[in-house]
């Protein structure tokens, strides 16, 4: 297998590729020429700075070319669509640009009537704003960060604001095409885009809105929520290892490149993604360096570092996410599986496929309550003195570690038996109720209490009273 980049050169119908690129590339070529040659004397001499800028622009262009069409198969699928009508190929058919996204895309027209309502974040390259579109939809809008490190260093080097705008915009263009080609529940959804330079903001990407990943906050969330983040990440890395663009590495892999959308982790920063394994001549070319560990992949007979991208992603997932989020407060029954994951990924002893398998196993065991079968349920003192259709009032809430609620002790359970086990292990617990409310895994939320003054009718939950302590309550 060769990398998508190489595949690109083997494409027989070069013309087709050129059509698909007309939309973006012609535009900046013209823009650039106007600017670079227009005001200068009609001579051929460019300053060395200009030459380097042009060279860099060319390189950035080359970098994204392979993402538009990457395989013979895709080419042949597209062919009838775009060459059937006579002269069709000469049109700048913008729908080609959007070939992989849905028809209800948000475009330049929608963006001209937007209202900026908030600042969501910024990095070296891009700024993200919360905007409301004319239709009332709220989205995240990415554009080039004019004050960012990328822009500043370009201006220092070339002192050419328009050229630098173009250069940095290529990163956002790359991100847009990657968001079109790589679609997964754990990658932020591209809802539209505008690459019309006539519009003030230049290149813009319209994304579903999330919130920044805050490790400190995540650490205080229940294990189930932290596991969800890690599982999402593993599913994402599995997808990236076998993606339509080949094996994809995230070169700038840090929590700030992700956002949370309704409890789910989603990758948002893709401009530093790299498709295809690196080339090599010897095994020593396939060294993967981290501050605390080095690894080496094998250089294949075809001259590529086999599996290097996957190794890089998986170890980064371990050092930035798993270490912090997985081990602490793991339910006892799941601890052996979680330990296995920690050991195996910390040493890269296990592929992403195997890692995903173990993660899905953990999810299954957790969801199905299988682990309760080995519990000494017979010793439970709190066997349901169930008061159906009755709730409690005047509850005395107590707080517990990693509760779903800040006010009281709310934990997820498989069923009332597991809740009884938990109540039994908390000295303060005298009663608990199981509501119909479920967590993302389908488990039930149970509220644990230290006492109550009386019972009141309630249709939404079932109350259980701990036997040995129930006598203290006024029923
Ligand atoms: N869809 C989004 N919703 C909310 N915030 C976002 C979204 N996408 C990015 N952000 C925030 O904006 C910051 C910058 O975006 P990013 O794509 O990482 O830019 P850069 O390439 O400059 O690092 C991110 O760190 C994140 O906090
Ligand atoms: C662009 O191509 C699509 C798909 O082939 C076609 O439906 C559409 O009419 C074309 N639009 C223009 C402006 O040519
Ligand atoms: C990793 O490799 C580099 C270069 O070969 C070396 O300098 C460094 O000491 C190694 N680090 C570890 C932790 O082995
Ligand atoms: C994980 O590693 C630790 C320390 O190296 C070891 O004691 C433990 O047995 C290992 N656990 C598994 C499941 O491999
Ligand atoms: C990993 O899984 C994917 C899809 O499930 C499969 O296509 C691929 O061949 C597997 N890789 C290995 C090395 O088994
Ligand atoms: C809870 O699930 C366990 C394990 O499946 C089972 O043994 C127990 O009877 C269940 N308890 C209730 C109240 O359904
Ligand atoms: Mg970023």
UniProtKB/TrEMBL annotation:
Q: Which reaction does it catalyse?
A: L-tyrosyl-[protein] + ATP = O-phospho-L-tyrosyl-[protein] + ADP + H(+)
Q: What is its EC number?
A: 2.7.10.2
- According to its UniProt record, where is this protein located? Golgi apparatus; Secreted
UniProt xrefs under Gene3D superfamilies: Transferase(Phosphotransferase) domain 1 (1.10.510.10)
Which GO molecular function terms does the record list? ATP binding; non-membrane spanning protein tyrosine kinase activity
GO CC terms of this entry: extracellular region; Golgi apparatus
The name on file for this protein is Extracellular tyrosine-protein kinase PKDCC
Q: What is the scientific name of the source organism?
A: Electrophorus electricus (Electric eel)
